[in-house]
């Protein structure tokens, strides 16, 4: 009925936007076609809208072209562009005339040079879009005809203007997909041509649906898996012939012939893999279940640089997903990439480094990079301006691992890094450079290398002049190492102390204070330093909970522990009222093991000196807090508490008895629990009648078994031995204690730089 009523078709073309082509000297005209079927009365019966684009190439456009005249000619040739758009056309042509040859951004995902004519197929005719049906008919004949027909369609597909026409010809794409599915094993040339046709579609995002619809990605996986197996078979065959062929004779000629055939097949195969890799990149999210990573990594053994560029680029895109990264770890990806660093092909080298950077976020893969010898190779690249930043980022990740910090000393890395720091002068240091230096300075051998010559002098001079917090963090890491390194800082104690004041930035003060706190140098007159720079009021004020960030307060506590090694300095601190402030801070931070351990260490240092010992024992409740911490779950806290309480017990009889009583009580409870547990396990009768009354612990109305008697006697004997130990300890000569503890144990290791919840200093998005 509608067909009877329909009288004529109305077609309307509306021009939308005008733009320049991203890669060619051409204008792109976006338009919309509206087709309507009108009835007898002229009313609208049925309509459809369709968007399209037309590309107008400007082959004659040159720097000397008259843009105005050319714009008018464009409007004459392309009737759909209204005359009112003339100024816009002139502006776009002017832009094209002055645009550089290499565009900054392309919509296509490939470079023009990758769309070169297919090698190995010579055609004597020019393909025409109007003859597509003829080319399709060839796909239903033999292999030679199929190759010819698909090659002609490939000629058309290379022109983006023809893709839309081919897309609407469902017979063409369906036939190509069918031929690929059925005949790819019979001809590498045929498979390669068809894959390249679909590659032309996959180069534009709007055609990705076509590639997915015909399941080209899955077909490509089957093709490449088969080709890689053929490659392994070829290599094995060549290996056998090389082994058996004599120096002269027919076998040698056969071997040479086989080698030439192998290279010819290899060239065709690599061309096939290039096209297939492009297609896979468009459907990468669906490929994991088909072992795409394993197949790509196997291709890394090839020598074709253009193929390797594609494969490494694809692996880089895949590596941002955790599952793909794990797959790469299982198939020895790092070992195969190591041979590509360094290489003469700049694009390949850059892509390889970017892939290694993605993989270096995994600690196991970082270890593998060191194992295969990438560390010295990456160090060499620090001298390459094009790849320096990428190499430095990978080295930064490696330097985060304590296992590998010491290996940098056997390369030329540290001298190069120091030279880079020196060359920066007063300019801001690159984040990657200072980050890796901070990490490496945490290793003693690296720190010694950094301080060689005038290294430390250069670092201190620049840090103090620029007030560079990150550079001072590096210096702070250097200062933590014992031995000769600490003595190098004596000349800078005054400079560092002068920076500790209220008006300075807290981050800057934190690094300077941390560096000073690391300087446990016996001959250093800390009393003079504190007085000259009036540091005691600052330190005392910062002990108040909430007075500053916890990191700064903790460094203040560590600083007090360091200066308390000096007798006169400890007395000065005790008189200033710092000990009660430390106890108050201990109460506020009792859940933080780091604070507790460092505060207890301050008490340990102070009980060595007569004046401060009396203050701690008689005027404060510090011993009571130490007794409470005697059995703390943290081993480091228990160790420092025991050493401190041993000295207090020697000097004060009352506290000595309390300490002995607490140790005996804790020991006794442990034995009681052990005995009761043993009795319960062996189902022995209880040694007492009433579970809740332990006053008659060893007096039972029942008869004891032999095992119970033995346990009882053994327990009594050990308790007497324990009691004898404390009696001996209390009657020991006071000199024995100081003979044992005359050299104070090393300060507890600070958690600086090792907090488990702390993120790496420098991360990459």
UniProtKB/TrEMBL annotation:
Key words, A-Z: Membrane, Transmembrane, Transmembrane helix
Mapped ARM repeat ranges: 577-617
PROSITE patterns in the record: ARM_REPEAT (PS50176)
UniProt name for this protein: Kinesin-associated protein 3b
Keyword Transferase: no
Chain segments annotated as transmembrane: 710-729
GO molecular function, one term: kinesin binding
GO biological process, one term: cilium organization
InterPro entries (UniProt xref): ARM-like, ARM-type_fold, Armadillo, KAP3
Statement: the UniProt record of this protein carries the keyword GTP-binding: no
One Pfam family cited in the UniProt record for this chain: KAP
GO annotations of cellular component type: axoneme; ciliary transition zone; kinesin II complex
